[in-house]
# Entry
Amino acid sequence: MPKKILFICGSLNQTTIMHQISRYLDEHLCYFTPYYADGVIGQLSRMGFLDFTILGGRFKYETTKYLLANNMNIDFMGHLFNYDLVYTCSDLIIPKNILGKKIILVQEGMTDPENLMYHLVKKFKFPRYLASTSTTGLSNTYDYFCVASEGYKELFISKGVMEEKLVVTGLPNFDDCVQYYNNNFPYSNYVLVATSDSRETLKYENRKKFIKDAIEIAAGRQLIFKLHPNEKFDRATKEIKSLLPNSLIFSKGNTNEMIANSDVLITKYSSVVYVGLALGKEVHSYFDIMLLKKLLPVQNNGVSASNIAEVGKNLLESKKFYGVQTKNAAYKTRHLFN
# Structure
């Protein structure tokens, strides 16, 4: 008998991840919603005060647009049914109407560094969202947490996530990076600068210094800037043009394909750094490169979505899931009946 599954989306990256997973669960009734919250946070998002987050603004607009364009079943805030299973892209906020249900958390990509706010949240039990994605996984309200690599599994365990809830599945959008070489982007052999939305999400960034650092790294090579989709394009373009009047700037386009055609990738705190590392590019990041190589999502020829769907199928059947092992880029699962 078909089960009802709710997919809670977020950014466009998170939404496409959820869509890919759902394709392997088409025997069930799959519904989708933009990210949402209840209580005071929900009210603030509806009033537009949180449009810089995945609760509203451009994120919610792009998610809704994508869901409609792909003829996906939409259930805003998950009110239509009593769902048998919920997939969510983030546990920084857990809506009340999914508490007590079977929940699978799916890693989106890179998590923020553990700064002062991260330690304050852990010590004083402040709301997790105050420390952004650095507190991903710490809600402990899910049954399983599907993560990108063994390196990330170790990282989440070190933060206090229960090891038995972690499943290394790989990460859709980051598990088959060689596919991005097949593209129509007209430029090649350049230095790509992928900017961030730090300022739009109320974090500090010295953009002028970032641009100057990129110029120094490029050392005369062609620079191409790919702006973050949540960024204020006019402001960012003006800043870049003030230092590089003839630079190429893109606000749209497939960042991963641009990385594939580049020789060098420069970014700050962005998951796209993993595409550059997977493709063997020269990479510059504000994170330690050796750490990033350890955390690099497994390259499994694009089977991560299938792996994550399999976790859901086993959970629906009330089986305990004991992890995944990889062999020749294919996964084997082990199960134990209750």
